[in-house]
TrEMBL record, chain B:
GO MF annotation terms: glycolipid transfer activity; lipopolysaccharide transmembrane transporter activity
Gene source species: Maribrevibacterium harenarium
Protein name per its UniProtKB record: LPS export ABC transporter periplasmic protein LptC
Highest classification ranks of the organism: Bacteria, Pseudomonadati, Pseudomonadota, Gammaproteobacteria, Oceanospirillales
Segment forming the signal sequence: none
Pfam families, A to Z: LptC
Keyword Cell inner membrane on entry: yes
UniProt key word Transmembrane: yes
Top-rank taxon, per record: Bacteria
Transmembrane segments: 7-25
């Protein structure tokens, strides 16, 4: 939901290691992140904060795969994505998926090696950085006249 | 004939009476049982303020305690509502408090028990707070081990766990068991 990115972030895990001087924290073991309707699942999560202000800047998740979910609107439409590595920039509200990535938004689907998704304006870009091609299935927009 | 048979009975009864009488008279080996000795401090103080200085006369630590009891047989000092202030090499101030405290003789380690709290006030104004059921300060390793409902609160956010080991010098923390992190969005 639009309000997601301004919500507090809650993280659960089996164990963690914090470095206050560097402003980083590593969470490991059944990691679950929640921010409003946003949910991230991973095996490993590293968070980056500003050591002085404490503001949380960025999360890096790794998993087999790491997963990202978010409810898009009140109708319950969802965006679901997976990737070997996932990076969520909480300041720019930007999600980047790397390595064998997949994103499904409502009925549209993408498979690619790299997917960039901008949460606020709901736009995405997909690339293949090695061989292979980007696979994209986009549903035609519903026409008002079509019964 | 009848009289002769009575004599052993009389003798037995006499021995029994003397035995009971004698056993009743002997005082117990020690007037106070061991249990009583263990719960008795060899000295105690009330309204305590203890200041510790280094070789250059710079104050290192202040311990304020409502009551202080020392037990010689256990080499231990027990503190009631200890309130401790300590300055580390980088001159940041550590402030610790709890319901009870324990200090072993000859050691600078302190075990804080019951609503234990340690707050670090850094030179740059930043603070870090540890809370737990028990916090063990280990002087030589310069670490604080929090166990039971442990939490570490800093500018980044607050994180809870079953156990947290915090290294004073590196400002790094290891958290284990049911870790939950909470970060406000600024």
């Amino acid at each position: 939901l639009p309000s997601d990115t301004s919500q507090p972030i809650q993280i659960e895990a089996d164990k963690a290691f914090m470095d206050q001087k560097a402003g980083t924290a590593i969470y490991e073991g059944s990691v679950l992140v929640r921010q409003g309707t946003i949910e991230i699942e991973a095996d490993y999560l590293k968070i980056f904060s500003d050591p002085t202000s404490g503001e949380l800047k960025r999360l890096e998740a790794k998993g087999t795969p790491s997963k990202f979910r978010q409810q898009l609107d009140e109708t319950g439409a969802m965006i679901i994505s997976e990737g070997d590595a996932l990076e969520y920039d909480t300041v720019a509200s930007k999600l980047e998926l790397n390595g064998d990535s997949y994103l499904k938004r409502d009925l549209d689907e993408i498979d690619a090696e790299y997917i960039l998704y901008m949460l606020n304006d709901e736009t995405f870009r997909a690339e293949n950085r090695g061989q292979g091609r980007v696979n994209m299935t986009l549903q035609p927009a519903k026409n008002e006249e079509t019964p | 004939m009848f009289k002769i048979q009575k004599i052993p009975l009389l003798l037995g009864g006499g021995v029994l009476t003397v035995g009971i009488f004698w056993f009743g008279l002997t005082p117990p080996a020690d007037l106070l049982s061991n249990q009583a000795l263990e719960s008795t401090p060899d000295y105690f103080l009330e309204g305590v303020t203890a200041n510790e200085f280094d070789a250059n006369g710079i104050k290192q630590r202040t311990i304020v305690s409502e009551k202080l009891l020392h037990y010689a047989d256990r080499d231990i000092t027990l503190l009631t509502t200890p309130d401790i202030q300590q300055w580390s090499q980088d001159r940041s101030v550590w402030h610790a408090s709890a319901e009870n405290g324990e200090i072993k003789d000859g050691s600078k380690d302190i075990l804080l028990k019951g609503a234990a709290t340690v707050v670090r006030q850094r030179q740059d104004g930043g603070t870090m707070t540890l809370t737990a059921d028990a916090i063990h300060y280990l002087e030589n390793q310069q670490i604080l081990v929090s166990e039971g409902n442990a939490s570490v609160i800093s500018a980044e956010g607050s994180t809870k766990a079953d156990k947290i080991q915090y290294d004073q010098a590196s400002e790094q923390a290891q958290l284990e068991g049911n870790v939950t992190g909470y970060y406000e969005k600024l």
